[in-house]
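Posting here for the record, re: zinc ion.
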Amino acid sequence: MKDKKIIAYKNERTKKIAYNLRKLIVRVVMAEWGRLGKEQENKPTLEYIEIGNERGDLYGALQASICECSSCRDTNDDMEYNATLKEWFCTQCAQEYRDYYHKEKEIYGDHYAKVHDDEDFYETFL
Ligand SMILES: [Zn+2]
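Prediction output follows.
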């Protein structure tokens, strides 16, 4: 098993501040993302694409951040960094991915790849 980088706040006050900050950052980023979407409307093609790229970068930065789980979008949980995907997942989602992979591996064994095309994804959580 690889070393896992997990952020888990033990102090309740620190946890509350961190979770509120995460939520605030997500809210601000999504408000800007929405504003850019409105600004994008009825723009000439080049400008439309440039604004679209800016929106994509903004969303990508949020997805790569610890502010929310890349899978369930939860902000109020301990987070685990997936170094291969370069994204943060809540520890619950990461564990569910591991459990699912192990369960399917138990069922299909060496034939796993014949019935699933997502082995690379799940293996990043092991
Ligand atoms: Zn999650």
